[in-house]
């Protein structure tokens, strides 16, 4: 291998590392948005909610920059199969994080009409659900940073806890609505917020599957369905 | 330009055309899934609903093949800026279609628990909403096939009709729930189904924005927010 090829390969690796760093930063911003969105639900702070909504643009911009960077990198270099896998995975992970940011912004957006109607106590169930989802996203970002397939597997496996918390909250909200029809409007907002957070858990598992695939070179066993609401029949 | 370069450029264009054809076929499959999902809601056919859910795998597989093909193409060739824009847009459009397929499968999946509970008359409002969304997706696929920015603009502009139909259905379902608490479970499923279809409209507008950007070289004016539920405060 001559020095020139060596140099190209080295800087390619450096660019991949830089890319990975940007994706992790983007993910940290998305988790911060999720935590802020739950905070504004609790505080019923309309202006803070609007700030969370507005901040989502920064995540969208980061995703555009990352994916344009990936495409330009691919156009200028000819990576090998294993590198291609990592590059391709980076595109997917960035797209999952962008959607996590979208869902977090939607939770904040829903809190605005919610703050105008009667308070409903299941809001604490929403916080619990959000904490589980935020912990999953943080863990999967660590797994991505460290290329740690075992840690990614744990996130994938533990998504069932997020789903169970969602299903419990779903049933609780339905009971509230049946007992007190005046709570229907606010409970409907809480239902959509809960669904948004449950979907964040699904995107964390998508990222976990990607990490596993890049590290192990084979798909994670019994892949989860990618669609919304995998446990809809149990609701 | 020598013959060899000419040959490479020509086959690059051919590959882009082939890619475009695959994406349109994938889109047609997604629209067919949307139409089938509404059909199973009306007929309350649980087995047919399960077939729609299962068919979503075919769309996911097509998206994976398309995006892997794109990445391989980029790795092997060095396209120019304008080609890069088209290639990049193809990745985005395929991703939007994959999500349209997901949402259609979710509508079908929701119809299974719905068929076990009391019937609710707003189901016809759901059909109307789905017809509007399906028409948007068909039109934006035509615009993509023909590189027609004006047609894409019409889809983008007319998404407000999908949003209005969604908001009307949302209010109708809330009224039903308040008037008859026994309808709450089925109306909740219908709410989520309506939201899934409204999101399909948003993905059609994302595709429209992509077409506009590739043809015109600049973003469509006053870009729509990409998040879920852009009109949540009007619900």
TrEMBL record, chains A, B:
<protein>
    <recommendedName>
        <fullName>Phosphate-specific transport system accessory protein PhoU</fullName>
    </recommendedName>
</protein>
<dbReference type="GO" id="GO:0006817">
    <property type="term" value="P:phosphate ion transport"/>
</dbReference>
<dbReference type="GO" id="GO:0045936">
    <property type="term" value="P:negative regulation of phosphate metabolic process"/>
</dbReference>
<keyword id="KW-0592">Phosphate transport</keyword>
<feature type="domain" description="PhoU">
    <location>
        <begin position="126"/>
        <end position="211"/>
    </location>
</feature>
<comment type="subunit">
    <text>Homodimer.</text>
</comment>
<dbReference type="GO" id="GO:0005737">
    <property type="term" value="C:cytoplasm"/>
</dbReference>
<dbReference type="GO" id="GO:0030643">
    <property type="term" value="P:intracellular phosphate ion homeostasis"/>
</dbReference>
<keyword id="KW-0175">Coiled coil</keyword>
<keyword id="KW-0813">Transport</keyword>
<feature type="coiled-coil region">
    <location>
        <begin position="9"/>
        <end position="51"/>
    </location>
</feature>
<comment type="function">
    <text>Plays a role in the regulation of phosphate uptake.</text>
</comment>
<dbReference type="Pfam" id="PF01895">
    <property type="entry name" value="PhoU"/>
</dbReference>
<dbReference type="InterPro" id="IPR038078">
    <property type="entry name" value="PhoU-like_sf"/>
</dbReference>
<feature type="domain" description="PhoU">
    <location>
        <begin position="23"/>
        <end position="110"/>
    </location>
</feature>
<dbReference type="InterPro" id="IPR026022">
    <property type="entry name" value="PhoU_dom"/>
</dbReference>
<comment type="similarity">
    <text>Belongs to the PhoU family.</text>
</comment>
<keyword id="KW-0963">Cytoplasm</keyword>
<dbReference type="InterPro" id="IPR028366">
    <property type="entry name" value="PhoU"/>
</dbReference>
């Amino acid at each position: 291998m001559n020095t020139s090829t060596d140099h190209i390969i080295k800087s390619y690796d450096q660019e991949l590392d830089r890319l990975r760093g940007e994706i992790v930063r983007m993910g940290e911003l998305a988790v911060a948005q999720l935590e802020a969105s739950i905070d504004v639900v609790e505080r019923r702070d309309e202006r803070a909610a609007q700030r969370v909504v507005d901040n989502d643009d920064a995540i969208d911009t980061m995703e555009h920059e990352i994916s344009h960077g990936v495409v330009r990198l691919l156009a200028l270099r000819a990576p090998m199969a294993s590198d291609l896998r990592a590059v391709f995975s980076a595109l997917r992970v960035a797209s999952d994080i962008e959607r996590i940011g979208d869902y977090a912004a939607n939770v904040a957006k829903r809190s605005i009409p919610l703050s105008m109607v009667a308070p409903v106590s299941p809001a604490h169930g929403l916080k619990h659900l959000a904490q589980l989802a935020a912990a999953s996203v943080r863990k999967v970002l660590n797994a991505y940073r460290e290329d740690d397939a075992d840690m990614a597997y744990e996130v994938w496996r533990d998504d069932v806890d997020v789903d169970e918390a969602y299903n419990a909250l779903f049933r609780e909200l339905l009971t509230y609505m049946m007992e007190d029809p005046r709570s229907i409007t606010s409970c409907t907002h809480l239902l959509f917020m809960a669904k948004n957070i449950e979907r964040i858990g699904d995107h964390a598992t998508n990222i976990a599957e990607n990490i596993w695939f890049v590290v192990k070179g084979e798909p994670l066993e019994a892949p989860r369905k990618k669609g919304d609401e995998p446990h809809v029949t149990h609701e």
